[in-house]
Write a structure and sequence with these properties.
mainly alpha, 6 helices, transmembrane, transmembrane helix
Length: 143
Amino acid sequence: MDKRFWVCGLVMSIAALLLGFIVHGVLLAPDYAALGAMFRSDADSRQYAHWMVLAHVLVGFAMTWLYAQGFSGSRSALFQGLRFGLAMALFSTVPGYLIYYAVQPLPASLVAKQLLAGVATMLLLGLLVAWLQPRRKVLAELP
């Protein structure tokens, strides 16, 4: 794992955290607030913020690592990014929200919003990691 991998992983982690904040902290915040005590209060959730950061760092570096394993220089980065993002959504995001729906009394409308926003987030992260291409040679290494 070279320097490019670590930079890509860091960029992906920051992007995942920012997209998560936009989706859950802004767009879906009113839906969560309407559920009352089912979720932590703002004050209580701040005590657990480090776990949220860790989760997004894991997402960023895992996606970077997995993408680097299957990168193909012969295919378009756009296609590969969308395919990878969709695979990640179907592997983690979609099943995760369906499981939450099965075990928590969440409104179907909220779960639908979570699913749509989660898939969109993974597609965007897939495009980003494809654009960053963690295994691409840096310009200085090219002849």
